[in-house]
């Protein structure tokens, strides 16, 4: 082998090693950045859990402690008995479950019509529906309250649950984009076999749309579980309060008892964190695929 060939080979090896070092360094920098950001975003959650196991004096101790010196498990039963926690929890579950069912059913049907059925003016109507996302909620707040007041629904969960059965522009967009990625040949083959639109929808499109369905269900469940403004506006009797409003009521009545407040907030937050942890794979898949084809 000539000296020139050896020199070229050496330069290639050094260039390859330099590229590998840059690649490893870049990935390491990304992982370190993500680790720092994850710590920043999860610190308030861990602080809430830590505070729920502390006494009020230790919560305001300087310097603060992450791990409680004396774990106060009694904060949790005390928080449950101080407020009508299980009553608020039952109202929250009722509101979240029925609203989620309505959101999934209504948006699936509308999205199927916008994505799999051809009819005159379909794209124009879809554009109009999507454009409603630019309308701020504050604009419709008063007209909706007047409408529900005339229907004598104010004071119950109906103003919070019933609108979910009339579709949501954002959910329609998500599901429609996902259904557009499904091969149209599946529908044609089913029609050749004698299937109608209802059979195609229930037997073919729905089973293939599980990631989008899970995404919408999780979005709606998280929104209704944490929704504070809606229950605050429409609910009047404390027996119908959800957890978000109930915890705020607890804060106004027992604001000095921070340990109990943190315990109640932890019991309110942890279920949604656990739910997202187990559903995150399907959730991310649904979000990723809702935009591949327009």
Model description:
The longest helix has 49 residues, at 3-51. This protein has 294 residues and is mostly helical. The mean pLDDT is 84. It has helices at residues 3-51, 56-59, 75-82, 85-115, 122-131, 137-150, 158-161, 169-180, 184-192, 197-208, 210-226, 229-234, 243-253, 258-289. The radius of gyration is 27 Å and the shape is globular. The protein has 14 helices and no strands. The chain has 2 domains: 3-51; 75-289, Orthogonal Bundle (MetI-like fold). Helices cover 74% and strands 0% of the residues. The relative contact order is 0.13. Helix 1 packs antiparallel against helix 14, helix 4 crosses helix 8 (169-180) and helix 4 (85-115) packs antiparallel against helix 11 (210-226).
CATH level-four homologous superfamily name of the largest domain: MetI-like
- How many structurally independent domains? 2
Please identify, by name, the CATH architecture of the largest domain.
Orthogonal Bundle
Would you give the CATH topology of the largest domain?
Answer: MetI-like fold
The separation of the N and C termini measures 57 Å
Number of strands: 0
pLDDT under 50 segments (min length 5)?
none
Supply Rg: 27 Å
Largest sheet: none
Mean pLDDT, to the nearest integer, reads: 84
- Helix share bin: over 70%
Number of helices: 14
Could you write a compact summary of the structure shown?
This protein has 14 helices and no strands. The chain is mainly alpha-helical and 294 residues long.
Layout of strands and helices, then pairs:
Elements: H1 3-51, H2 56-59, H3 75-82, H4 85-115, H5 122-131, H6 137-150, H7 158-161, H8 169-180, H9 184-192, H10 197-208, H11 210-226, H12 229-234, H13 243-253, H14 258-289
Helix pairs in contact: 1-14, 3-14, 4-8, 4-11, 11-14, 13-14
